[in-house]
Amino acid sequence: MGITRLDHWHFRLTSLLAFTLAFLNPIHVEAAEQWIPLFNGKDLSGWTPKIKGHEFGDNFANTFRVENGAICVRYDGYNQQFQHRFGHLFYKEPFSNYVLRVEYRFVGPQIADGPGWAFQNSGVMVHCQPPATMRKDQDFPVCIEVQLLGGDGKNPRSTGNLCTPGTHVVMGGKLITQHCTNSKSGTYHGDQWVSAEFEVRGNGVIRHRIEGETVLEYEQAQLDPGDPDARDAIKAGHPMMISGGYISLQSESHEVEFRKVELRRLENVP
Description:
Elements: H1 5-11, H2 13-24, E1 36-37, E2 47-51, E3 64-67, E4 70-73, E5 87-91, E6 97-110, E7 121-128, E8 144-149, E9 161-163, E10 167-171, E11 174-176, E12 180-181, E13 194-201, E14 206-210, E15 213-223, H3 228-235, E16 246-251, E17 254-265
Antiparallel strand pairs: 1-17, 2-5, 3-4, 4-17, 5-16, 6-13, 6-17, 7-8, 7-16, 8-9, 9-12, 10-11, 10-15, 13-14, 14-15
């Protein structure tokens, strides 16, 4: 009969224990600290890729690399065939209460067979499931995605949006079940660098800031029982409410660069 989806989770018992630790016992922060660089500007030390169709740790076609002091997503080894090989570059440890700051920009054309919606589209994922628990053919981790979008040169298109693979959030006192919610940011055309900050307070408030302005706010990140991957996690005993997890940078078929990735820990308070 073959292996079932739930059997797959049980088979990865060690990874699931990490999942439990990430959601039940995220790193406890005693006091606020200074900005900590998560990227050293030289190589991918501390970061590990997970690309759809490939095992965790396999940086297929050198998708993620460092060039000119920036983490770059490149597709020159794909032979113009993206084939929905969505990728995520994970930082080595989970966090719970922090502010994450990145500077990003989109460059060049999109790979030929990339999805239309993925034009100048990337993201920073927070509250991610441990990457070792992802299925080999899983598109996206169960997480909260801060969606980063670039403009097409003429039409308005917000960035710092919210997408929720395998999750829901509460906004304005209401449970939000739609996949994506737009922010109130402006549009950033071309290849300019954009500064983005994400304030994450465990299972409390998460705020998105673009160029210093708060553009979106919500709280109570939680697993979506209607999502197959989240449902498997729930069946395996993981809590519905998410208070911590891993950070990842996304590869969605348009080349993107991150020249700064840094984190400031916050006290464990609302």
